[in-house]
Amino acid sequence: MTDDNSAKPQLDSLITFSHIVNLFQTLEKKKGKKQDVLIGFHQFWKKRDKHSQTYPYIRLLCPSSDRERNTYGLKELTLAKSSSVGSFSNSLYDILSNRCVVQHGTITISDVNKKLDELCLNQERESQEEVLRYFYMNCTAEEQKWIVRIILKDLKIGISADTVLTHYHPDALEQFNVTNDLKKVAVELMDYDVRVPAPQISLFNAFTPMLSQKTSIDDVLKAMKGNTFWVETKLDGERIQMHKDGSNYQWFSRKSHSYTYLYGSHESEGALCNLIHKSFRNEVKNCILDGEMLALNTETGRFLPFGNLKTAALDAKANGLNAKLRPFFRVFDCLFLNGKCIMESPLEKRYGFMLKIFEPQKNIFDVVPHAEGNTVEDVIRLLDESMLKLEEGIIIKNPLSLYKPSSRGEDWLKLKADYMDSIGDNLDLLIVGGSWGEGRRGGKLSNFLLAVFDEDRKKFISVGKCGSGYNYQELDEILRVTEGKWKPYNAKNPPSWLIHDYDNKNREKPGIPILKLTEKLFSLKDMVISPEHSKIVEVLCAEIVVTDMYECNFTLRFPRFVKLREDKGPDDCLTFLQLKEIIRHTRGK
Ligand code: ATP
C-alpha cells in the first residue's frame, strides 16, 4: 500500500457486510449463470477504487482458500458441520432470528475480517467467546448465518473458490495454486487485462501438487502417446510436500496446511527431521520433495489408514526409533534443487535427481520405485500384481512429463479395479486357501484362493485369488469365522476335496510366489481350509478370462470381495457348470 493510499479510507471499512451477504444470498438462490453475478461484483470493487484492496472481500468469498485463517479451532462448530453445513447454519438462523437483537446490519467487511482474524489468532476459549458475542450483538441473524458458513469454510452457494478466482483474473487460479497466497493474487492481479508470467514454486511456500486423472485400461496407451510408461504403486496415505533449506524444514499437505509441527522444522526435532536429515548428501543445500506420508505400525508391518498419521507422528516424536507407530515418507518427485526450480525438467530427469540426493532409510524415507510398461498387457499385469499385493491401485506416469502444480492431466493416471465395470453377476465362491499379507495386512492371511464346485468330479476346483475390496473389519471378520481351521498346505499330501494341481509349474499357489517376498514372509506357508469349516464369499470381477493358472482353466480378472455370505454353506457354492453358463452369457465379459 502506498502512503497516498493509506490516507484514503479503504473500501472495506466503508462497505457493510450486508452488501456481501446480499451477494451470498443471490448466488445461493440463483439457478444457472451465477458467474454473471460474480463478474458484476468483481467489477464493482475494481471500479469503485482502483487502489482499493480487493483481498478483504475475496477472502470472505473463498474461505477455504484463506491460508491466513487456516483453522479456527472451534470444536463445537466443526462438530456441528458433521451434520451438514447448510442445515446447521439454517437452523442456527431459525433460532437466532427469533432472538436476535440486531435488525439492520451496520458492521463493515473490515470489521468482520478483523474479528475473524482475532478468532483465528487467539484460540483461547474466553477470547473466542468474546468474538462470538461481538457477532451476536452486532449482526443480524442472517449475517450470523453467513459468518458461521465462513468459519466452517463452506458457503454452499454453488460456486467454488476456483470459480471466484477464475472470474477475478485469467491467471488468478494458476497463481493461487502455485503460491497459495490469496492476498498476493488479489492485490497483484487487479487488472483483468494485464497477464502475468507463469508462477514458480519457491522454498517454504506451499503449492497445490500435481494430481492424477482416473483412467481405464483401454485409454492408457493413448494418454501415454506411445511412450514407455512408468507404473508406481498408488500409495494410500496423505500427500505431503517437504521443503528443506539447510537444516530447516517445512511440511505441507495437499491443501497447503502446515504439518511442520508434526514432522519437524529443524534437523534436531520432529517425528521425521531428526531421522532423515542425515540421509541427505552434503551437496544438497535445499530441495522440495513431493510424496506420500504413510502411518506404519512397526510391530505388525501394517500401514494404518491415514487418519492415524498424527498419532504416528506424535509417537515417533516422543519415542524416536522405538516408536510403535511411525510416519514413513515415500517420495515420488523432486521439484526444486539447490536454488533451482526443476518442474520443467522431464520426470525421468527429476527421478534421477531424487535417487542421488538422499540415501533411503527402510520404512522411514525412500523413493517410490516404478516398473516400466509399453502395452495394454503390461497395464493388466501390473494392476493384477498390485491387487494381489492388496494395494489400492496403480499410478501410471509419462516419464517425459513436466510437473504442473494443481493440474490433473493425462501425464499422471490413476487406475483402480473399482473404476472398472463388472460382469453383471456376483459370484458365490468358496474360500479354499489363504496366503499371508504384505504391507499393511502383513502377518495375516489376506489373499484367498477361491474355488467353484465341479459336479462331475465332485470336488472343488480352483478359479482365482482375491485380496482386494475388503476393509480391515471385513478381513478380520473372515479371519474370525475361520479361526483355528487353517492347515498348512502339504504338497505331498494335497487335500482330497480340492483340485488345483500344485505341481503344474504354471499354477498359481494359494501362497504368494508371484509377489516380491520379504524375508519374513518366506518362512510362512500357504494355508488351506476344508469346505465344512470354510465360508462362501460373494465376489465381483471385471471379466472372466482363459488361463492355465487355475484348475477351471478360467479365472476372474480384477476380482473384488463384496461380502462374506454367512448365510450360505459349501453346498451353495457356484458350480463349474453355472460358471460356464455365466461365461456364455457375458462372452468372457
Ligand atoms: P484425487 O486426489 O485424485 O482428487 P482422491 O482424493 O479420491 O482423488 P485418490 O483417487 O484415492 O484420491 O488418489 C489420488 C491421490 O493418490 C493423490 O492425491 C496422491 O496423494 C496419491 N498418490 C498415491 N501414490 C501416488 C504416486 N505414486 N504418485 C502420485 N500420487 C500418488
From TrEMBL:
GO terms for cellular component: DNA ligase IV complex. Signal peptide: none annotated. Keywords: ATP-binding, DNA damage, DNA recombination, DNA repair, Ligase, Magnesium, Metal-binding, Nucleotide-binding, Nucleus, Repeat. The keyword Chaperone does not apply. Its EC number is 6.5.1.1. It catalyses: ATP + (deoxyribonucleotide)n-3'-hydroxyl + 5'-phospho-(deoxyribonucleotide)m = (deoxyribonucleotide)n+m + AMP + diphosphate. Residues 329-454 form the ATP-dependent DNA ligase family profile domain. It is found in: Nucleus. It is an enzyme of class 6 (ligase). Its cofactor is Mg(2+). Its main location: nucleus. GO terms for biological process: DNA biosynthetic process; DNA recombination; double-strand break repair via nonhomologous end joining; nucleotide-excision repair, DNA gap filling. It comes from the Eukaryota. GO terms for molecular function: ATP binding; DNA binding; DNA ligase (ATP) activity; metal ion binding. Belongs to the ATP-dependent DNA ligase family. This is DNA ligase. It comes from Clydaea vesicula. The gene is LIG4. The chain holds residues 1 to 589 of 946 of the full protein.
